[in-house]
Design brief:
alpha/beta, 213 residues, 5-stranded parallel beta sheet, single chain
Length: 213
Amino acid sequence: MTIDDHIVFIVDDDERIREALGDLLDSHGMRAIAFGSAGDYVRADKPDSPACLILDIELPDINGLDLQRQIAEGDHPPIVFITGHGDIPSSVRAIKHGAVDFLTKPFSDADLMAAIHAAIAQDREKRAERAELGALKQRYLELTPREREVLPLVVSGLLNKQAAAELGISEVTLQIHRRNVMQKMAAASLADLVRIAERLEIPVTHSRRVGGN
């Protein structure tokens, strides 16, 4: 992990805490940007990099837990909560809604760094998944209308002649479309194509009929 491929956001209204965290992260070769309020964080332009958000519970403009709820629908970095006023209900709520950790001040540098590394690793994984899904969606858009009709029939388990009959085309034509679908979707096998269809949430409304040949 290099200083250029990630970012740690710090949101804490205590300037001394912001400076101390910034120094700690700098000593570990990690880039940090600090904010004194939730509003400053939300309004700021942020680098498009794997990230972690260190978030205080008590802020001047909004409770950290409420900020977690507000940004939950977007693509936000995994959160590590820090607080001097921790309680069990707050920690349960934070973790239940996806926080990586909930640390009560004073916490050890080791515990904080472990949480930060876990958060950044989690964000990398999420970003990779989003990128992969984006690539699959782009491949799907490159299918012809007929190929988009063929795909759900193929992954449903229908035999070629059953799928061809469903579409009113010849079995040979169906096989051509099926081959094109496999190639365009970069599917190595039928099982792979089924997994792709599931990721794209393509509805499958047919099933292989008993007794089909």
